[in-house]
Design brief:
Layout: E1 5-10, E2 13-21, E3 24-26, H1 36-45, E4 52-54, E5 57-63, E6 68-71, H2 82-88, E7 98-100, H3 106-109, E8 125-129, H4 130-137, H5 149-162, E9 170-173, E10 177-180, E11 183-187, E12 196-202, E13 205-209, H6 218-221, H7 233-249, E14 253-255, E15 264-270, E16 273-278, H8 279-286
Parallel strand pairs: 6-7, 7-8, 8-9, 13-14
Antiparallel strand pairs: 1-2, 2-5, 3-4, 5-6, 10-11, 11-12, 12-13, 14-15, 15-16
Amino acid sequence: MKSETFRFQVGSFSCIAIQDDAPPYPVGMFLTNLAKERYEPVLLQRGEDPQYIDLPYTCLFINTGRERLLVDTGIGPTQGKLLPLLRAAGIEPHEIGTVILSHGHPDHVGGNLNEAGQPAFPNARYVMFRKEWDFWMSNPSLAELPVDESFKKGMLASAQKNLPGVQAQLNLVDPDTEIVPGIMAIAAFGHSPGQMGLDISSAGQRLLFVADAIVLPLHLEYPETIGMTDHLPSQMVETRIRLLEKAVREKSLVSTSHFAFPGVGRVAPKGESWQWQPMSATRASRS
């Protein structure tokens, strides 16, 4: 049985990747401007399904020694497993001091509230970029997304339930804000208008959390590709390339929301693009 939690260190920070859920999605949904003839043979060669992918919803717990933080809250208590997995790891919801919300999509804010409709993390401050909050509170039409109306309605309903539901505990910030010592909020705009990435550093080691700027490993090899849920595609591509360049330049470990669990690894240059090196492979290469 595959583990749904994965522990790793970043300097003195203890981290746990937590797989909240892993539903299937059409691969083409995230590669709308890339011909199937280009990516399907690559996936087949790797022994992967060229049509559907089980896409993990990965949340990240960080214990800095002084603060306990959670990055994203998953899809919610009905479908997701975040709360029982946290408890299995010895972490009670009331012990979380900060919940960082990367952006307002359902699989990232769906667990803000518990089944009773109350904040799932009662003692936490929830942190989000002001730009992202303003977007979802503007009652957007989501006309920019090439998905069906029921999908749009579900996205909007989730945001308008799960964001105001924690407003009393919500701290709206701007890019380049230090959330706690060693954890900096950085702009990752494009996938959503105000998406947040994180630049995490401790004892000379770095972790770059990229949220949904990169959804599939193929996005490293074809960084110009866009997905159906990218609100601002051109900006998203610029953000992706900037984050990939940053990861290589700073030799950062990288944490993703949707790569094969645990979604932690390194980015390496490959010709004019990049390739993904999962943490297990990274560890093996150093042993």
